[in-house]
Write a structure and sequence with these properties.
It comes from Micromonospora narathiwatensis. The chain is mainly α. 84% of the residues lie in helices and 0% in strands. Helix 1 (2-29) runs antiparallel to helix 2, helix 2 runs antiparallel to helix 4 (110-158) and helix 3 (91-106) packs antiparallel against helix 4 (110-158).
Amino acid sequence: MERVAGVLASRRGLLPAVLLGGGTGAVLGGPVAAIVLAVYGVLAARAVRRRRERQLADRARRRELDQLCALAADLRAGLPVEGAVADGPHRIARLARAAVRLADRTGAPLAELLERVEADARAADRGLAAAAAQAAGARATAWLLAALPLGGIGLGYAIGVDPVAVLLHTTVGGGSALAAVALQFGGLLWAERLGATPGRPD
């Protein structure tokens, strides 16, 4: 249920970008411009939101790992630990709780088990960071290709024509502009999916 609520909240967060882009486009250039700027507004807002979500998730994960490391150090020093070892639905918390159960049943040293959980999670993070760095080039190429039409518009002005007027105020130009934006939108989403970092543990 929480996941569904999060998806709905994130979609509602794109509504201001649609309204702002669409309204600005409608005032400046008519219905075609409204659709084009609404789509670009969604792409920009989505990119900003996803970047922020990744940063927040990375910070939360690092904090969990640091707490796990501190807990293991306290256990090795013989200090009492307060409350549950880990709480939450994420993989690190599940593994920490499993380590506690294993230590209770077998008498294995809990500090060592927690240190192994932490070491495994940090190794996985290093692998995911390397994969993300490899995928960054593909994402940059996709955004560069999406920006190429701006070069075409600039070239049109350089040779003395008004491509924006053609795109926004003629039937053929409007159809071409909408088709191009739809292809750009789909292409960027596809490139994002292909270049996504493989399953970060949650």
